[in-house]
Design brief:
Blueprint (H helix, E strand, L loop, with lengths): L1 H9 L5 H37 L2 H9 L9 E2 L5 H11 L9 H5 L2 H15 L6 H25 L4 H24 L7 H25 L2 E2 L7 H18 L2 H43 L1
Parallel strand pairs: 1-2
Length: about 290
C-alpha cells in the first residue's frame, strides 16, 4: 500500500525504491541506536548490581581462594585497599569486547616501549617520562587482566597464570635493558647482578607456590604496585638530577636485595621444615 501510494504521487514507479531504501536505512540506524542503548543499560545494570552486592561475596569471587592456587594471589601491599575499591568501580565498566587475554597480551607492547624509550633516553633523559607512561599502562593491564577473567568467569586460569608471569619477567628485563642504555659499559655487570637478585625473588614466589599452594606476591607492605611507583619516582629523579646516582646505587640495590632474599629464604625454609615435621608426626600418630 505504501509503495503503491508513492507510485501514484510520483506518476511512475521510479519513487518506490528510493523510499524503501530510505526506510531501510532509518530502520538500520534505529536498530543500531537501540542496540547501543541496550549495551549501555546492561553495563549500568552490572555496575549497579555490583554496587548493591554484598562486598564479602564480591571479594570472594575475585580475591578469594581459587580452585587453581596460581589464580589466587596474596598481596599485603600498602595500596591494596585502594586497589580493591578501584577494581569494584572498573570491572563492571570494562567494554564487553575487551577480554582478559587482550589485557595480558598488551604487556609485550609496554615492554618493547620501555626498552625503546630507554634507548632514546640515552640522548635525552626526558624520554623517561614515556617510560613512566608505559609503566602506568602496564599497571592497568596487568592489574586487571586476571581480575576481569574471574569477574566474567572466562576460565583461562592456567593460561593466564603462565602467560601473565612469563610476560612479567619480560617486563622486568625491559626495565633493566632500558636502564642499561643510560649506563657506561663497566656498570653492566652491576646491572646483571640486579637482574639476578630480582629474578630470584620471582623464583622464590613460584617455589613457595609449589610447596604451600599460596601465591604471595608481596613482601611486608611492598607489592607490585609499590614497585611500579618506586620505578616512576626513580625515573623522575634521573630526569632531574642525571644518571650519576643510578651508577653508584646499583651495587647497593643488589646488596640490599640479596640480604632481603636471604631473610625470605630463611623464613621460608623454617616454615616448610615445621610443616614437614607436623605432617610426619600426623602420619606416625595414625600408625
Amino acid at each position: 500500500m505504501i509503495a503503491h501510494s508513492v507510485s501514484l504521487r510520483d506518476g511512475s514507479g521510479t519513487g518506490i525504491l528510493p523510499v524503501i531504501h530510505a526506510r531501510d536505512a532509518r530502520a538500520t540506524k534505529l536498530e543500531s541506536s537501540n542496540k547501543s542503548k541496550v549495551d549501555e543499560m546492561q553495563r549500568e545494570i552490572a555496575a549497579g548490581s555490583l554496587r548493591k552486592a554484598n562486598h564479602t561475596d564480591w571479594s570472594a569471587r575475585v580475591y578469594g581462594k581459587q580452585e587453581f592456587a596460581g589464580a589466587g594471589k596474596t598481596n599485603t601491599g600498602l595500596l591494596v585497599p585502594l586497589e580493591r575499591r578501584l577494581a569494584r568501580f572498573v570491572l563492571p565498566r570494562v567494554p564487553p569486547w575487551l577480554e582478559t587475554y587482550h589485557l595480558t597480551l598488551l604487556t609485550p607492547v609496554w615492554s618493547i616501549g620501555i626498552a625503546g624509550f630507554g634507548y632514546l633516553a640515552a640522548r635525552d633523559l626526558r624520554w623517561l617520562w614515556m617510560v613512566n607512561l608505559m609503566i602506568v599502562f602496564h599497571y592497568f593491564t596487568d592489574h586487571f587482566d586476571g581480575k576481569l577473567g574471574k569477574f566474567r568467569n572466562t576460565g583461562l586460569r592456567k593460561w593466564g597464570f603462565y602467560m601473565d608471569h612469563l610476560f612479567d619477567y619480560g617486563f622486568l628485563c625491559s626495565i633493566l635493558i632500558g636502564y642499561s642504555f643510560l649506563l657506561p659499559q663497566r656498570a653492566i655487570f652491576n646491572m646483571m647482578l640486579v637482574l639476578c637478585v630480582f629474578s630470584a625473588f620471582m623464583f622464590h614466589t613460584f617455589l613457595m607456590l609449589a610447596a604451600t599452594e599460596e601465591f604471595k606476591v608481596s613482601f611486608l607492605l611492598f607489592g607490585p604496585t609499590e614497585l611500579r611507583i618506586a620505578l616512576i619516582a626513580v625515573n623522575a629523579l634521573l630526569i632531574k638530577f642525571g644518571t650519576r646516582g643510578l651508577k653508584g646505587s646499583l651495587p647497593y640495590i643488589a646488596g640490599c636485595g640479596t640480604v632481603a632474599l636471604a631473610l625470605l629464604a630463611y623464613r621460608a625454609q623454617k616454615r616448610l621444615w615445621k610443616t614437614d615435621m607436623q605432617a610426619k608426626e600426623a602420619v606416625e600418630a595414625i600408625d
